[in-house]
Amino acid sequence: MAERGEPTEARVAVYIDFDNVVISRYDQMHGRDTWRKDEARRNDDKVAAKVDIARVDMGAILDYASSFGTVALSRAYADWSVPTNASYKSQLVNRAIDLVQLFPASSTKNGADIRLAVDVIDDMFRLPDITHVVIVAGDSDYIPLVQRCKRLGRVVVGIGVQGSTSQALVAALDEFETYDAILGDQPGLEPVAAPAKASKPATGDEQAATPELTPATATRLLVRAIGLARAKQDDDEWLNASTVKSQIKRLDPSFNEKSLGFRSFMDFVRAAEQVEIRESGQQRFMRLREESATPTGSVAAATQPAAEPPAKRPSRRATSAAAPQAEAPVETKPAARAPRRAKSAPTATDPFREP
C-alpha cells in the first residue's frame, strides 16, 4: 500500500454528503438555522441571491482531494429533485461526480449518512488499492465509519464547514481541513459564479463544452498545482518537476504543453514569470516566486522617489578642513595664569610666624 502523502501511487475515494455541506455553508453565510427559516431548498426568487452567495465550489473540494493522490471515485449523495441541489448540475457533471439519488423517507432525515457509510465499507473491500478516503461532511454520525476505515488501513481525511463540524469527528480523523481554508490556500482559484438564467435552455452539447486551454489559463493551472503540492510538503519549499506535472494532470487531464506551443514541460514552466526554477544535475525543482515586499498602501507612494536622509552634522575636523583660508589666523597668546597668592606678612597677633 502506498505511504501517506505519496502523490504518484496513492488513490483517493471522495464521498460528499451534499445536503450537509450546502446547508452548513448557507447557515454560515447568513446565520444559524436560516436555511430552514428561508426554505432555501426551493431556490425561488426570494432566496436565489442568498443561495448564490453561499454557493459551494465542488471543484475546489475535488482539487484538494487530488493533492493526496489520483481521485479514483467520487460520489455525492442528495435528493437531486430539490431545486437548490439541481442548480449544481453543471458543476457536478463537469467534474464527473457520481450522483446518488436519495428520496427522503421523512421530512427530517434524508438517509445520506447511512447510504454513504454502506457504500464506503463496500468500496473498501472491493477496491483494496484505495489508500485515502475523503469524507465531505461534519456530522458526528460518521465517527464509526472513520474508525472502521482506519482499522482497514486507510487514511481518512475530512472536509467540513467552519462552525458546523463536530469536534469529535475532527478528533477521529487523520486529517481535517475547513472549506474556507481550501478556498484560501489555492492560488489562482477563482470563485464559482452562479449560473445565469438563460431565456433558452442550453443543449446537452453546450453543457458539456469545456473552455479551451490557453497559455494564460495553463499558467494559472501551474500556479494552482504548485500551491496544492506545496501544502503537502512541509520540509522543503522546492518541488520536483514530475510532482508538479502529476498534480496538473490531476487538475486537468487535458493539459498538454505541446498543444500550447512548448517543446517540453520545463519550457512551459520557464515561460511563467510566477515560478522560480532550480536545477540540480538531472533534477529540476520549482517554487512560486515570493511577492514583492512593497506595502499594500497607495501605489503612488511606491512610485515616488525615496526621501533623502537628513544631512549628517559635519565633524569639527571636516569643518576646519573645508573652511576657506581667506585670512591668516591671528596668533593669540594664551591667557596668563593668575599670580600665586602672595604670602601674607606676619602680624603681631601671630607670634609663631618668622619675620
Question: Could you describe the 3D structure shown?
Answer:
- The protein is of the alpha/beta class.
- It contains 16 helices and 9 strands.
- The N and C termini lie far apart (122 Å).
- The relative contact order is 0.10.
- Residues 1-7, 187-210, 292-307, 318-324 and 344-348 have low confidence and may be disordered.
Summary tags:
3-stranded antiparallel beta sheet; 6-stranded parallel beta sheet; 37% helix; 355 residues; Nucleotidyltransferase, domain 5; Rossmann fold; globular; 14% strand
SS-based structural class?
A: alpha/beta
For the record, the CATH architecture of the largest domain stands as: 3-Layer(aba) Sandwich
**Proportion of helical residues:** 25-40%
- 3D shape: globular
CATH topology of the largest domain: Rossmann fold
Strand content: 5-15%
Can you give the mean pLDDT? 77
Work out the oligomeric state of the chains in this entry: single chain
**What is the number of independent domains?**
2
Elements, N to C (H/E): EHHHHEHHEHEHEHEHHHEHHEEHH
**Sheet with most strands: strand arrangement:** 3-2-1-4-5-6
The major beta sheet can be summarized as: 6 strands, parallel
How many strand units? Answer: 9
Let me know the CATH homologous superfamily of the largest domain: 5'-nuclease
Low-confidence stretches: 1-7, 187-210, 292-307, 318-324, 344-348
